[in-house]
Amino acid sequence: MSDTRPTDVIPAPAVPRIPVRGGGTFPVRRIYCVGRNFADHAREMGASAPASKAERGTPVFFMKPADAVVTTGTVPYPPATADLHHEVELVVAIGFDAPSGVLPPEQALALVFGYTVGLDLTRRDLQAAAKAKGLPWDTAKGFDHSAPVAELVPAADAGELRPRRLSLQVNGQLRQQAPLSDLIWDVAEILHELSKLYALRAGDLVFMGTPAGVAALRPGDRFEADLEGVATLRGQVAA
Q1: CA–CA separation, 108 vs 98, rounded Å?
Q2: d(CA 70, CA 145)
Q3: DSSP β-ladder status, 17-19 and 25-27
Q4: Per-block mean pLDDT, blocks of 10 residues, the chain (239 long)
Q5: Which of 2, 10, 41, 54 is the 20 to 30 Å CA partner of 166?
Q6: Is residue 218 part of a domain?
């Protein structure tokens, strides 16, 4: 029987993959990101922070392309910016397709394959210019090499996350740190909220938001991002 499938007219791009502790790789489908998910960072960016769960409103979401993932630790300094900023984040990897409809929070963690630490790199000058004009800031977030991550750790090996600390050092100096208990929206709540907007699928990543202390990275800077007791990302900004 002849093969009637259409032939690609260009070579198919490679699927971005993240190494998994213990063996294998995780193919990346989409990257969702959460904005203003730590109150101290929301305030440092000039936004209000909720005083209680009842005042949270709805989470802020944006996206990065899947091929923004960097697993080598080497991050090229991006074009069109003079103000590249680091944002250290918990990264959640989805291992199963969500059922149709809105995902109940109590079922959300069953979809999680694993966790790691990553950086949501941001062209802050482009973001500020877009905000000032009331425009979308996709170019500030969704650029090449903007999502460096450490190896993925299966959820069963990571254990309880809430008491663990998220931190970032640049050139040996501590820049960011906070316990994950400070998240405004926890993992289950974020997956629930995302499911109202998108069909969550195996291969999706969720960057959960950053604490205060975001600042500039320069060519040659070395960084070490850590999710306490789970994963560490070491790398350098290349010229």
Answers
A1: 8
A2: 6
A3: antiparallel
A4: 82 96 98 91 68 79 98 98 98 97 97 98 98 96 98 97 96 97 96 98 98 97 98 96
A5: 54
A6: yes
> Given this model, what pLDDT does residue 52 score?
64
pTM for the whole structure: 0.95
Task: Enter the tokens of residue 120.
Answer: 């949501």
Locate 150 and state its tokens.
């450490």
194 Rama class: left (phi>0) / alpha (psi -120 to 50) / beta: alpha
Count of domains forming the chain: 1
CA distance 94 to 115: 9
Burial 210-220 (b: 16+ CB within 10 A, else e): bbbbbeebeee
CATH number of domain containing 150:
3.90.850.10
d(CA 127, CA 36): 14
Q: The domain containing residue 215 runs over which residues?
A: 17-238
70 inside domain: yes
* Alpha carbons 36 and 68: distance in angstroms, whole number: 21
Specify if 148 maps to a domain.
Answer: yes
CA-wise closest residue to 98 among 155, 39, 29, 33? 29
Give dist(CA 50, CA 62) in Å, integer: 20
Contact 210, 203 (CB under 8 A): no
Residue 40 counted as domain residue? yes
Q: How wide is the angle at C-alpha 94 spanned by C-alphas 29 and 85, nearest 5°?
A: 70
204 burial via Cβ count (<10 Å: 0-12, 13-18, 19+): buried
Helix (H, G, I), strand (E, B) or coil at 5: coil
